[in-house]
Amino acid sequence: MKQLRCRAALVCCALIWGCAFVVQTTAMEHVGPMTFTAVRSLIAAVTLCAMMPFFHDASAEKNVRRLWKGGIITGVILSLGASLQQIGIQYTTVAKAGFLSALYVVIVPLLAVFMKEKIRPAVWIAVGIACAGLYLLSFSGTASFSAGDLLIIACAFVYSLHIMAIARFSPGLDGVRYSCVQFLTAGILCMIPALLYEEISWASLLAAKWEILYAGILSSGAAYTLQIYGQKNTEPSVASLLLSLESVFAAIAGFVLLHQTMMIREVIGCALIFCAILLAETK
């Protein structure tokens, strides 16, 4: 039952992230990428601080040093990945950004191999099916890569490291406190280039307030905490496949919120991703 709850948490995380692609794009009409990333991260940290009394994990390890060490390390990785994605999304399409960001579904098993972890054959097959599904879901026309695409690919590598780092540091720790530390770290690090290179004003922040609040409270604070909780009893390769559902949810969000229709190839892509996840769960 606990393992099932962990998987459900990762699916909810993917749902929130899928919808976030819409707000990440519209927010760029008002604020710069580093400002957006810094403010959303700091809002996430404040939100998690407020949640601590209500979601205290009595069974969590009381090692404060390990909590701060793990939170700071994953926060540094998160700040780099989120920044690359937010900058890259300005120079490519949302569909390509969704596909390329989800390349962690391929990269995580490769990293696991380098760390001498044994990957089940079913997971490797599922990775191939998921990649085919992501391609059908996201690409149409030319498959050429722009500078923005390359930034998103770099982001996928960093997010893969983030998934592996969470798998390494989060077990036994309080998920809310751990997530709070990583977002505080990410917010401070991203605020430095935002202050140096971008123009920040209350008017621009208020113009993008709904996007920032969604990204800060739900996409950052809630979703990454769900990720930490979900990965406690889920192997990284399977976790990456579950999180890749964000591309499916992004397509659905585009249809519901932006009235974008789905072609047959996109529906087939969704079906392939679901099949890949079911296959990955096969023992």
Explain how this protein is built.
The chain has 283 residues and is an all-alpha fold. The chain has one domain. The protein is 78% helix and 0% strand. Helix 5 crosses helix 7 and helix 5 runs antiparallel to helix 11. The two termini are 16 Å apart.
Which SSEs are present, and which pair or pack?
Blueprint: H1 2-27, H2 33-51, H3 64-88, H4 94-101, H5 104-114, H6 121-138, H7 147-169, H8 175-197, H9 202-207, H10 209-231, H11 236-243, H12 246-258, H13 264-280
Helix pairs in contact: 1-10, 1-12, 2-3, 2-8, 2-10, 3-7, 3-8, 4-6, 4-7, 5-7, 5-11, 6-13, 8-10
Please write the string of helix (H) and strand (E) elements.
HHHHHHHHHHHHH
Proportion of residues in β-strands: under 5%
Distance between the termini: 16 Å
Structural class: mainly alpha
Report the sheet with the most strands, covering strand number, pairing sense and barrel closure: none
The total count of helices amounts to 13
Rough shape?
A: globular
Radius of gyration: 18 Å
Helix content: over 70%
The stretches of 5 or more residues where confidence is low (pLDDT under 50) are none
Number of domains: 1
Mean model confidence by pLDDT: 82
The number of E-state strands comes to 0
Short key terms for the protein model shown above:
single chain; 283 residues; mainly alpha; 13 helices; 78% helix
